[in-house]
Amino acid sequence: MSATPPDRAPEGGPPEDDTVPALAALSREEREVVLRVVEILRRLQFGTVLLVVQDGKVVQIEMAEKFRLR
C-alpha cells in the first residue's frame, strides 16, 4: 500500500495547495497576463519571456524565440 504524495489529493484529484484560491484572488488584468504568459510558454521551445513592469503593472510582454539548428 502506497501513501498519497503530499502535493496530490487522493484518487488523482487537484493538488492540495493554495493555487486555486490564489488564482481566484487575481484581478481580471492579472489573470489576462498570467494566461498570456502560459500561452507563450506552451509554444516556446527555446527562448526568453520578458515582462516589462511600470508602477507595479505589467505593461508589455516580450518573447524571443531561438531556433536550434543542431
Write up this protein.
With 70 residues, the chain is an alpha+beta fold. The protein has one domain. The protein contains two helices and two strands; from the N terminus they run ααββ. The protein has helices spanning 19-24, 28-43; strands at 47-54, 57-65. The chain has a two-stranded antiparallel ribbon. A hairpin with a 2-residue loop joins β1 and β2 (57-65). It is flat and about 40 Å long. The chain starts with 18 loop residues before the first helix and ends in a 5-residue tail after the last strand.
Descriptors:
single chain, about 70 residues, alpha+beta, two-stranded antiparallel sheet
Short overview:
The protein has helices at residues 19-24, 28-43, and strands spanning 47-54, 57-65.
Largest sheet: 2 strands, antiparallel
Number of domains: 1
Question: How would you describe the oligomerization state of the chains in this entry?
Answer: single chain
Mean pLDDT: 86
What is the C-alpha radius of gyration, as a whole number of Å? 17 Å
Q: Give the low-confidence spans.
A: none
Secondary structure: helix percent = 25-40%
With strands numbered from the N-terminus, the spatial order across the biggest sheet is 1-2
- Report the sheet-strand fraction: 15-25%
Element string (H = helix, E = strand): HHEE
According to DSSP, the number of beta strands is 2
Distance, first to last CA: 46 Å
State the secondary-structure class.
alpha+beta
The number of helical runs is: 2
Strands, helices and their partners?
Blueprint: H1 19-24, H2 28-43, E1 47-54, E2 57-65
Antiparallel strand pairs: 1-2
